[in-house]
C-alpha cells in the first residue's frame, strides 16, 4: 500500500513541476511585467500545456525543451524591456549569448533576476521528478493544447486585438504563427497565380498641390524655424486629444498645449517610422524613409548627388536663405555630421557649439532648458543679419535615459515623465523668448517631433505625431487643420508657404491648402505596416495578415473592424512599401559608404557608453543575404600624451552585440596612425546593423577613412555557402 501511494504521487509531482515551469511561471511573469491580455494568457496555456505533454516521460526531449524555454522566456523579457519588441527568428542565436541577457550593453546584469531564479528552480524540479516509468497520460489529453491554440486563433480572427505582440503571444507561439502564415501565404500564392505587375504607388509618392490655398499669395514670413522634439507623441497636445475625441486624458505638456491654441494645429498628423534620422529625412526631403529596419535613406543619400539637392534645406539655400541645423547631442551618431550638410545645411552644429553651462549632466548632450537658451542666442545672431534664414532645431532630453533636474524627478513617478515636463517648460520659455525678440512677426515656426515614443494602451500612439504652425499670417490660418498629414508633407508645405517651386521628386500635400478629396499615406511603427487610403486603414502585422478598419482619418481612438485580408491583397501593401523603399538607391548591394569626415575629435578619459561616446556614424545599416561587407579604417593621432589612446570597435544588430572576426585595434601612440581592413560574409540578411567605435585617452584623433562597402559574394563561394537553415545561397 505504501509503495502504491509513493508510485501515485510521483507522476503528480512530475506534472506539477512541469506545469510550474511551462505554465505557472510564464503566466505569473506576464502579470508581473504588466503584459496582461486574455490572448496572452491563452497563448501561455496553449504552448505551456503542449510542452508539458511533450516533456512528460521523455527526459531526452524534456531537457532541451526546458533549457530553450527558459532562455526564450527570459530573453523575451529582456528584449521587450530594452527595445520594445519580441525577438525575431534571426535573433534566436543570440538568446544563448550572455551579452544578450544583460540589461544593457554596459553589462549591468539581468533585469529580472527573480524570473531567472524561478526558471532555474522550475527546471531543477523537473529534472528531479522526471522519470520514464510513469504511467502514460490519456491520448485525448493532447487535444487540450490543440483546442487552446484554435481558440486563440479564432479569437484573433473574430476580435483582433490591437495590443502589443508580446501581450498576445509568447515567443514560441509567435514563431509557430509566423511559420503557419508563411505556409498559408505560399499556398495562396500558388492557388492565386502570382503576378509580376507592380502595384500603383502614385497616390503615395506624388506631389499634390491641387488644394485651395489658405494664403492666396504665399506667407508674410521671411524666415523659417523647424523645431523637432525628441519622441513626443501628438497625444500630449490637449487640442489634439479633444479634436480626435481621444480617451487619453493625461495632461503632460500643458504649456505647449497653451501655445497650440495660438497656432494652426494638425491633430491627425502621421509619423512614418521610428529613429530620429528617419524622421528628419522624411520631413526635410519630402519622401518616406524605409518602411522596415533597412539602411536609413539619410545614409543612402550620401551616395546620391541629385536627390539631396531636392531636400528642403538645399531648395531654400538656392533661393537665398542661409540654412542652419543645431541639435543638443553630438553629431557623429547616425552620421548627421555628414547627412545634414549633404541635405543642404550650410552650418551644422551639435553639442560642441554650446558655450552655456548645462543644468543637468546628460550623456547624450545638452538638457532641454540649457539647449533652448543656447538656441535662443543662435536665433538672435541670425536675426541680426539681413539674409533670410532656415534653422532646424533637434532636442535630446526626452531620449532614454531622459534628462531632468532633481526637483522635476522628485515631482514625478518616473524620469520619463519628469523629462517631458522639463521639455514642456523649456519649449514654452523658448517660444516666449522668440516672441520677446520679435521673431514671431517675421518667422514661420513649425513645431513637431522626430518620432513618437508611444503611450501604453493608446491606439496608434507610435505613429501619432503633431504639427503646430506659428506664422505672421496667423489670422488667415485655421486653429485646427483638418485632414490627414504627416512628415512627408512638411517640405512641400514650407516651399508652398513661401510660394517657391516644389521639385517633382518631393511627395505629399501642403499644410497651407485645403483638400476636398482623401489621400493615401503609409507608416511603419512598432513592427506594424499601416496604409490609409482615406476611407480604410489597413494594418499588417508580423504574421503577414492585414486587418482593415473603417476610418476617415489615420489617427483615431477607435475604429470599426471590417475584416482581414491575406494572400494577393495583403501582398500589395508590402509591395507598395518595398517600392517606396527604393526611391534613392534601389537596394544596398554595391553601395559604398564613407563615414569619415576628417575632423579633429577630442577623446574622453572614459568610453563607457557605446552610443553617446560613439566616434563614427555607421548605424542601422542593412547587408543583404549572400553578400560580403568590407570595412577599411584609418585613424591618425593628432595630439596625444605619452600613454596614447585605447580604441575599440564593436558591431551590433538591433542594438545587441554581434561577435564578428574583427581584429583588435592596437594602442594609438603619439604621431602614429592605425590602418585596418577586414571583411565578413552575410549568409543571412543583417538588419539594423551598427558599428560602434569608441576611444579613451588624453588627446585628439582624426578618422580619415571609415568606408563600408557591400557586394555580392564571389560566385565560386555562393554555390558552396549555406545559410543557417542549410539552404544553399544561390543567386
Task: Please characterize this protein's 3D structure.
The chain has about 725 residues and is an alpha+beta fold. The protein folds into three domains: about 190 residues, no CATH class; about 270 residues, Alkaline Phosphatase, subunit A, CATH 3.40.720.10; about 130 residues, Sandwich (Jelly Rolls), CATH 2.60.120.260. The chain has 20 helices and 26 strands. Strands 4-11-9-3-8-6-7 form a seven-stranded mixed beta sheet, with helices on both faces. A hairpin with a 3-residue loop joins strand 16 and strand 17.
Short structural description:
The protein is an alpha+beta fold and 731 residues long. The chain contains 20 helices and 26 strands. Helix 2 runs antiparallel to helix 5 (143-158).
Topology:
Layout: H1 2-32, H2 38-55, H3 59-83, H4 113-129, H5 143-158, H6 165-168, H7 171-192, H8 202-205, E1 207-208, E2 212-213, E3 223-229, H9 238-243, H10 254-260, E4 264-265, E5 269-270, H11 276-285, H12 297-300, H13 312-318, E6 322-327, H14 336-343, E7 347-349, H15 368-383, E8 389-394, H16 406-411, H17 415-437, E9 443-449, E10 464-465, E11 468-470, E12 485-486, H18 490-497, E13 508-509, E14 513-514, E15 521-525, E16 528-532, E17 536-540, E18 546-550, E19 561-565, H19 567-581, E20 592-594, E21 600-602, E22 621-623, E23 627-653, E24 656-658, E25 673-682, E26 686-712, H20 715-718
Parallel strand pairs: 1-13, 3-8, 3-9, 5-12, 6-7, 6-8
Antiparallel strand pairs: 2-14, 4-11, 5-10, 9-11, 15-16, 16-17, 17-18, 18-19, 20-26, 21-26, 22-26, 23-24, 23-25, 23-26
Amino acid at each position: 500500500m505504501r509503495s502504491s501511494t509513493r508510485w501515485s504521487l510521483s507522476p503528480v509531482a512530475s506534472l506539477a513541476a512541469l506545469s510550474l515551469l511551462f505554465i505557472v511561471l510564464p503566466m505569473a511573469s506576464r502579470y508581473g511585467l504588466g503584459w496582461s491580455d486574455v490572448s496572452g494568457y491563452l497563448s501561455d496555456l496553449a504552448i505551456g500545456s503542449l510542452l508539458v505533454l511533450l516533456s512528460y516521460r521523455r527526459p531526452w526531449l524534456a531537457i532541451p525543451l526546458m533549457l530553450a524555454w527558459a532562455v526564450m522566456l527570459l530573453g523575451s523579457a529582456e528584449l521587450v524591456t530594452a527595445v520594445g519588441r519580441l525577438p525575431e527568428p534571426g535573433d534566436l542565436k543570440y538568446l544563448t549569448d550572455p551579452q544578450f541577457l544583460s540589461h544593457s550593453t554596459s553589462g549591468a546584469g539581468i533585469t529580472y533576476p527573480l524570473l531567472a531564479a524561478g526558471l532555474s528552480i522550475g527546471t531543477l524540479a523537473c529534472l528531479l521528478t522526471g522519470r520514464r516509468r510513469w504511467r502514460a497520460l490519456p491520448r485525448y489529453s493532447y487535444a487540450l493544447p490543440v483546442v487552446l491554440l484554435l481558440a486563440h486563433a479564432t479569437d484573433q480572427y473574430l476580435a483582433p486585438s490591437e495590443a502589443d505582440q508580446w501581450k498576445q503571444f509568447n515567443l514560441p507561439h509567435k514563431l509557430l504563427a509566423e511559420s503557419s502564415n508563411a505556409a498559408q501565404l505560399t499556398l495562396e500564392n500558388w492557388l492565386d497565380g502570382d503576378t509580376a505587375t507592380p502595384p500603383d504607388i502614385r497616390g503615395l509618392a506624388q506631389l499634390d498641390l491641387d488644394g485651395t490655398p489658405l494664403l492666396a499669395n504665399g506667407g508674410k514670413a521671411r524666415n523659417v524655424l523647424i523645431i523637432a522634439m525628441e519622441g513626443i507623441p501628438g497625444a500630449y497636445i490637449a487640442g489634439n486629444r479633444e479634436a480626435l475625441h481621444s480617451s487619453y486624458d493625461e495632461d503632460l505638456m500643458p504649456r505647449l498645449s497653451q501655445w497650440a491654441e495660438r497656432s494652426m494645429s494638425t491633430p491627425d498628423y502621421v509619423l512614418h517610422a521610428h529613429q530620429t534620422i528617419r524622421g528628419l529625412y522624411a520631413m526635410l526631403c519630402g519622401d518616406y524613409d524605409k518602411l522596415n529596419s533597412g539602411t536609413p535613406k539619410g545614409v543612402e543619400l550620401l551616395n546620391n548627388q541629385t536627390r539631396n539637392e531636392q531636400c528642403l534645406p538645399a531648395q531654400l539655400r538656392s533661393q537665398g536663405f542661409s540654412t542652419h541645423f543645431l541639435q543638443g547631442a553630438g553629431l557623429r551618431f547616425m552620421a548627421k555630421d555628414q547627412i545634414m550638410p549633404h541635405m543642404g545645411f550650410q552650418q551644422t552644429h551639435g553639442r560642441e557649439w554650446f558655450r552655456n553651462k548645462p543644468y543637468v549632466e546628460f550623456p547624450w548632450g545638452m538638457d532641454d532648458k540649457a539647449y533652448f537658451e543656447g538656441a535662443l542666442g543662435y536665433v538672435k545672431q541670425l536675426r541680426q543679419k539681413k539674409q533670410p534664414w532656415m534653422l532646424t532645431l533637434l532636442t535630446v532630453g526626452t531620449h532614454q535615459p531622459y534628462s531632468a533636474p532633481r526637483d522635476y524627478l522628485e515631482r514625478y513617478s518616473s524620469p520619463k515623465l519628469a523629462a517631458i515636463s522639463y521639455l514642456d517648460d523649456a519649449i514654452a520659455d523658448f517660444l516666449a523668448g522668440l516672441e520677446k525678440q520679435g521673431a514671431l512677426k517675421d518667422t514661420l515656426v513649425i513645431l513637431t517631433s522626430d518620432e513618437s515614443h508611444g503611450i501604453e494602451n493608446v491606439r496608434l500612439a507610435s505613429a501619432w505625431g503633431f504639427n503646430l504652425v506659428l506664422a505672421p499670417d496667423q489670422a488667415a490660418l485655421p486653429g485646427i487643420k483638418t485632414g490627414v498629414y504627416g512628415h512627408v508633407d512638411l517640405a512641400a508645405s514650407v516651399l508652398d508657404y513661401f510660394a517657391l517651386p516644389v521639385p517633382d521628386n518631393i511627395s505629399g500635400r501642403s499644410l497651407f491648402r485645403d483638400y476636398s478629396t482623401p489621400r493615401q499615406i503609409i507608416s511603419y511603427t512598432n513592427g506594424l505596416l499601416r496604409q490609409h487610403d482615406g476611407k480604410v486603414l489597413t494594418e499588417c502585422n508580423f504574421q503577414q495578415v492585414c486587418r482593415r478598419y473603417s476610418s476617415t482619418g489615420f489617427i483615431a481612438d477607435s475604429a470599426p473592424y471590417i475584416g482581414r485580408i491575406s494572400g494577393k491583397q495583403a501582398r500589395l501593401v508590402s509591395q507598395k512599401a518595398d517600392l517606396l523603399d527604393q526611391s534613392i538607391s534601389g537596394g544596398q548591394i554595391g553601395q559604398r559608404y564613407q563615414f569619415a569626415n576628417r575632423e579633429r575629435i577630442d577623446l574622453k578619459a572614459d568610453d563607457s557608453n557605446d552610443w553617446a561616446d560613439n566616434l563614427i556614424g555607421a548605424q542601422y545599416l542593412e547587408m543583404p543575404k549572400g553578400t560580403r561587407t568590407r570595412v577599411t579604417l584609418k585613424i591618425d593621432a593628432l595630439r596625444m600624451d605619452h600613454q596614447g589612446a585605447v580604441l575599440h570597435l564593436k558591431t551590433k544588430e538591433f542594438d545587441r552585440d554581434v561577435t564578428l572576426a574583427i581584429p583588435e585595434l592596437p594602442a594609438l601612440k603619439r604621431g602614429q596612425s592605425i590602418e585596418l581592413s577586414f571583411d565578413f560574409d552575410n549568409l543571412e540578411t543583417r538588419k539594423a546593423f551598427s558599428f560602434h567605435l569608441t576611444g579613451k585617452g588624453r588627446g585628439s584623433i582624426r578618422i580619415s577613412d571609415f568606408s563600408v562597402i557591400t557586394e555580392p559574394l564571389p560566385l565560386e563561394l555562393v554555390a558552396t555557402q549555406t545559410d543557417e537553415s542549410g539552404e544553399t545561397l544561390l543567386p
